[in-house]
């Protein structure tokens, strides 16, 4: 309607003035309700053509959309393991929590037992290390004893051999062989004692530390499993729809305990879906404006910070059936990210609120830097100028939005 009124000022009004003052035709005589369509035919035709052209230019270079929402991501409250709830720390069903705060705890009897077993195993290995040190000391004594016995056998053998050299009939050959066998046996005993000491030392320095490290790793694992029974808040925010009770069973795949909404969720920007036709016009840095249902009668200055290069309607998922293009019933929209031009610009806008947004093309840099022809220069100036029409329409929508919602929506 605003475009029609604007165009009529340049078409119907001049045509009427010409008929009135140049041709002397007056309203009510020559120009009546039945003849106005003929008398002002040129102005009316030009007005309709100019209105259609103006609407096309406005909606193409200054696109508008009602598919605008402050999307936000929620964090499901889930444990990392199955279990039965044994204690709840937050107020139900809503509560504000800080990052790292406890939300609820699962029954940890099994995890406590595993932790106790791991601790006892470490204590057992430490006791075994003490016993290994005692075994080394015992091996040292055994070595000394074996060396003493060996030395006694050597002395006895040397004495017998000296006597035999002096008089062969004094010591029998059998006796010399027996003493030699005794010496060899006691040498083996010394070697065995030294090997036993080496084995005890190796066990103390290598095997038992490795077993202790393994037991400590199992202790840490048991502690981690115990810590998993307590669910903490990963971010600061608000717990919603938290309806757990002591005794409920929760599952990380099927039974969440509620949702955690981050404190800054949906408060940094808006996401708008513009028509695919505006894909060549939407650029990062474009000025934009928005008005939201949750904050009526307010125009929020915005700026385009991102334009998604893909349209969600075209995505496919691999399956056992072939894809038919006719299955895409809706054409989809171009996702554009908007952020407030000023700090705290979205204060008062409830996350998830529906909004209306306009984006405005800006050819100022092109007009200032490029050597353009007269026609192009006038056209770009006209494109920038007609953006005010869409701005006025947005403000009219912001004024009518509360009335439309409260009066004409069935309330």
Describe, in plain words, how this protein is organized in 3D.
By secondary structure, the chain is an alpha+beta fold. It has 4 domains: 1-58, no CATH class; 62-72 and 266-315 and 327-411, Efflux pump adaptor protein, beta barrel domain (Elongation Factor Tu (Ef-tu), domain 3, Beta Barrel), CATH 2.40.30.170; 75-107 and 229-262, RNA polymerase II/Efflux pump adaptor protein, barrel-sandwich hybrid domain (OB fold (Dihydrolipoamide Acetyltransferase, E2P), Beta Barrel), CATH 2.40.50; 109-225. It has 9 helices and 14 strands. The strands form 3 sheets. The chain has a 6-stranded antiparallel beta barrel with strand order 1-10-13-12-11-14. Strands 2-9-7-4 form a 4-stranded antiparallel β-sheet, with no helix packed on it. Helix 2 (12-22) packs antiparallel against helix 4 (41-61) and helix 5 runs antiparallel to helix 6. It is rod-shaped and about 175 Å long.
Shape descriptor: rod-shaped
| CATH architecture assignment name of the largest domain | Beta Barrel
Distance between the termini: 27 Å
Structural class: alpha+beta
Largest sheet: 6 strands, antiparallel, barrel
Report the strand count. Answer: 14
The total count of helices amounts to: 9
The unreliable regions are none
Helix content: 40-55%
Radius of gyration over all CA atoms, rounded: 47 Å
Question: In percent, how much strand structure appears in the residues?
Answer: 15-25%
CATH fold description of the largest domain: Elongation Factor Tu (Ef-tu), domain 3
Number of domains: 4
Q: Could you spell the SSE succession in H and E letters?
A: HHHHEEEEEHHEEEEEEEEEHHH
Numbering strands along the chain, what is their spatial order in the largest sheet?
Answer: 1-10-13-12-11-14
CATH superfamily of the largest domain: Efflux pump adaptor protein, beta barrel domain
The level 1 CATH classification of the largest domain is Mainly Beta
Give the mean pLDDT: 84
